[in-house]
## 1
Amino acid sequence: MAKRDYSMLGPDARRAVETGLAAAEWYHTDVPRKEMKALMQRSDGPAIRDTIILFGAMILFAGVGIALWPSWWSAPFWLAYGVLFGSAMDSRWHECGHGTAFKTRHYNDWMYQIASFCMIRNPVTWRWSHTRHHTDTIIVGRDPEIVFMRPPELARIFANFFGIFDTINGVRRMLLNAAGKIHPEEATWIPETEQPKVIRVARIWLAVYLAVIGLALWMGSILPLMVIGLPRLYGAWHHVLTGLMQHGGLAENVIDHRLNSRTVYLNPISRFIYWNMNYHVEHHMFPMVPYHRLPDLHAAIKHDLPAPNRSFLDAYREMWPAIKRQLLNEDYFLKRELPPTAKPYREDFHVEALGQPAE
Amino acid sequence: MAQWIDACSTDDIEEEDLIRFDHAGRTFAIYHSPDGDFFCTDGLCTHEHVHLEDGLVMEYEIECPKHNATFDYRTGEAMRAPACVNLNTYKTKVEGGRVWIEV
């Protein structure tokens, strides 16, 4: 059984480069250029509509929460506000980081900055880490955003339903960066010319958090932290619930997103919070397509993809047994069936990486 | 020494679109701008060398299909991360319905 090293500086990272897994050419479903051009077209309308709904709902829920504070009657409003702050902002960070949510670049950039702050993800660092995630998706030692490492650290993953480790890491990195330092792993994917920006943003954020903490101390109440800071903890559960499905239990070290990513049909509220990233195979295969066109892209290429999971429950029913088996056997993974209409997996590309697939 | 190469017909590229053109072991991207002009850059994104042929042309910018890096294809200027290095650009001319590039 092979032991994995997920560090960006370890032997698996070196091996990925040596074997050509890093920065490889990935499989893409054939889509006629005219159709793909239409799918890639940008528009401000859907994201402006969704952003008005998002901020309107956040103001409403936080306003009622503040008005009812400290009564327990405020709790449901905080829970709703928290999901929008600690989970919807994850998908806004993601889509605006790609620059596809809005047509107008400044709108993407503004939303990206706000969402990065809410998620305590340095906007410069995480732009580059996500770039690497798309270059080397679930390649061990190359992808810094692998959640389900093998064997899975279940306690850490469960704790992150309350944002605990993500928040601790985010705050630690913010303090490190504010002190003028870049973590050695970050330095492997952030160009030197961008590193001063990491430090500048961290210092601004630290000043904001100190002001919020100062206000809380002055008021003798945690209420300011209920609005800024704590929702990263109490509202994180939805983005973790959806995020775990993206790649959980699937293959590592392959260059076909059909083998390492999962598409799941979800209810409209979760799709609003998640901004359609449940179409995850499609997103990885064609990251230029905006979130509001992903259902159309799915319809165009589903003949070439494994059947999507039908719901949260269906996805977790598939994933959970595989995760449990990976506790004992790190090489175990799910290899999903392709429909007869699909181009087959390139076994010759993947046989070494895949080893023995699940039955 | 630079020379003019017959690259394609003007009808080969829709407005606000691009095509790939390979010549002498090099690869280029040729663009048809919204106002009818033609431009040429290196074909590979300066970030991770993905070909721009599947990218999206929006007015005077080309967006890389892999990481959404953006360049002004008239000047080659990198407009959006993760691209930090400009694209090389090449002169073009149109003669007899053909697009020529100077390489």
## 2
Amino acid sequence: MAFFPHLLLAILEGTVAAAVLALSALGLSLVFGVMRVVNVAHGEFFMLGAMLAWWVAKMVPGGPAIGFIAALIVAPLVVGALAFVTERLLLRRINYDPEATIVATIGLMFVIQQLALSVFGADAKAVSAPFAYRIALPWFGFSGYKLFVVVASIVILLAVWWVLAKTKWGLVMRVTQFDRETATAFGIPVNQVYSAVFVAGAALVAVAAVLIVPIQQAHYLMGLDPLLMSFIVVIIGGLGSIKGSVIAAVIIGLADGIISMFFSPTLASIIATLAVALVLVFRPQGLFGVPVR
Amino acid sequence: MSKSKLIVPEKKRISRRSALKLAGAGAASLFAGPGFVRYAQAQSSEPIRIGFQVHKTGIGAAYGKWYGQTTDAAVKLINEAGGITGRQVEIIAEDDATDPGRGAEVVEKFATQHKCDVAFGTLFSHVVMGSAPRAGELKLPYYVVSEGHHVASGKLNRYTFQPGITDVRSQVISMAPWIAKNLGKKVAIIFPDFAFGYDHRDYFSAAIKAQGGEVNALIPIPPTETTFSRYFAQIPADTEVIYHVMVGPAVLTFVKELGEFYGGNHPPLFGFIDSLEAVSLKSPGLEFLEGSYFWEAYPRYAGAKPTEFDTFYRGKVGVDQYGASVADANDVSTYSHMFGCWETLYIIKQAMEAAGYKGPDDRAKMIEATEAITTIPEGNEHPQGDKIFNGKIHQVFGHQNITQVKGGVGELVYRTTIEEGMYEPEADYTTMAL
């Protein structure tokens, strides 16, 4: 393949990778930002969302488009409900202690993984995209649905930004993030805010999974990749900074697309990991993070 | 009221400790009696225990499920016919998570904890590589169903056999002449980046060269990869044939993205059915495969005239004429691999009976009996076809099939002779100590 089409494919692939990264990291970033806890089971919420998308598509008659829309409603509701239960029965009991939360959510991760294995089985499940459109370029074809994922992730990111920046809900969340004690003193029900944020984070990652699963496949071990990549994005972008996460996702996604196309995917992974290490050494709060007070 | 009246006199009192002792002794004597009898009869009536190393989880899970179903069907049949040397067969299945480290632990458990007579059933080549040395050290006969060339290469040991499925080297050397003659001579190879894929890379490259062809691109893909378009960009424009073989949970995405990348305008495709095992050829997005060719060890689609043995085997395993589960047409089997479990179990039976196998002390005799097998006739026990076993390299040789996708099913276009897949043996396990 000549240089230009090669570069074009690399940029397209990189843009899709960036969109997938930003979408899957969004929930983690939100939870980390407001609650200052790391949810290791984040990847499993993603996997559950994908599994539910498969299940709903199988159950709902009327073709992939209707199944897709139904999954967009069902998956965030179910995963959100699970997150609510987790928050009440697990995180609240350990008082959102950061270390204890890591251990508890690692446990939760294994529980969800094994439950998914027992309920859905071990084989990979394909979910049809809501529409099949192949963009035929002179040199190669590209999936129209992949570009739809890019557009959808931009819309979702803008929506989340709007909620955080422009609504009273967002204000409450930002206040809680800024200073938990002062927020309590001003009568903000911090516990309820935590509940809402944790549920919203899980619901967001479930939506991301429903969008992404047609270009991958649902599989009970699929949560690991989004978890690791989300961590990388959140660490580089700055803990709790949505803007930072998005910029980090774009940088990593594009770099991954281009490096893995012109050199090798292994090199791309090495560079991403190296970037995390460098950021941790020279700017522990991330590119756009504020140091923890 | 005086307390003493209520107290049992000291001598007659049974303390908790003595009561436990008594109960324990009673229980011991209860077990000792039948236990002795059991021991005396162990040689004749204890079941033959076959440790089944199965990929229930991990990247091999889709295969593991069908290996399990085929193994259960064969064992049921063997037991109904009286078992092996008159003893019933018991399968002890352990998940190895498709992981070489776990694999070695599972083999160890079979030998020491479960007291299995033999171990069997491993598919993924890296797990075989990880497990076989331990089986050799423990002197546990280990019958793999893997396709890898590692057994025949002489790199493993006297206790490891592959008598139920042919190896990749044999498969690719029998395919190369047909590909060069019918599809083209400039071949780009897409293969999984581990042992099994390297067999394809090395032996196909050599085989196509021998036909006057050349490999113009080698494209390795990690088996855990989830996105593939980037790899297709490496296929040179002057490629005459794309040779693909993929494994792992993402095979369907792999083939779909190949279709998106090329659309209808692609070089001829020759795939190993591994790229689509457990996946329906009629899946949405796979329409572009129409007219392309596949290697199949055992054609998934029964065709117009299946053999009576094939019909028998499908019926017992619970697979329809399209290679899908009779219970669920969307549940497609790993048809080109799982027959290896069925056929291997019958080889184990044959070897044990020839050796007069009574217990683990006869393992050496069983090894020699397996090595002595030469020709294997087609039949209900070997429904894929007749085979030739080479005892020196512990590897079986058989017919290979080329199918073409027509109307969403793979129609047989060519079946090789056994000789087309033969090569000079590189090793001789029989000279190794037992």
